[in-house]
Amino acid sequence: RDFFPLFYSAWQSAFQEKTILKAFEATGLSPFNPQVILQRFTTSTPLASLSDSDSSTISTSDWRKIERLLRQVVDDRGNKQVKRLSQVLHSNSVQNALLKHEVMSLREALVNERTRRKRGKALPLLEPEEYNGGAIVWSPRKVREARSQQQQQKLEEEQQKLQKAEAKRLRGDNRQAKAEAVQLRRQARAEARLLREKERAERAERAADQASRAAAHRTNQR
User: Fold this and answer.
1) pTM attached to this predicted model
2) Which one of 69, 77, 140, 160 is least enclosed by Cβ atoms within 10 Å?
3) Model confidence pLDDT, tens digit, residues 138-153
4) Domain-by-domain residue ranges, the chain?
5) Distance between CA atoms of 128 and 133, rounded to whole angstroms?
């Protein structure tokens, strides 16, 4: 759905009168000027002719200016290192231009998506069985029915969300209740264990007291 806006924008940018005229001018066809091509094969260019080129800022995407500047400062154009440098500059320039275009396209697609979301969902209007393409004119009754169906669907979705939220809350309450019950059972078992230990200690203490009294009684009888 984002293809046509991007394609149409690129098509409008590429197929412009000034772009076409520049293409003819760059090849020396219109206006007719063979020197445009011949001057590319000149052997050397004085460094003094750099004039504004050495002081002006050159964009990394303008590979033609970079190539022209390279030809002005390098005499031996047949050198392999020079050719490789030219290729690297050209490749980096193209990649930079592509990345800029991609960023612009992604931003435009993001803006279109946000705009589409703000407009809301499309009405659930079904195409007729005999539809063969082209524009469809819907009757006011069909539009009202579609809006009513969309509103009903929206209410059902909201109801489902509320039901899911309530079910989640109940699950949380059940987990909390189970945890509290487990804690109460642990506490009851701990209290029962303490009570048994206390009773056992009291019985042991009574038995020891009785044994002590019996031993004292036997001693007195002797």
Assistant:
1) 0.31
2) 140
3) 678 877 888 888 888 8
4) 1-41, 50-120
5) 10
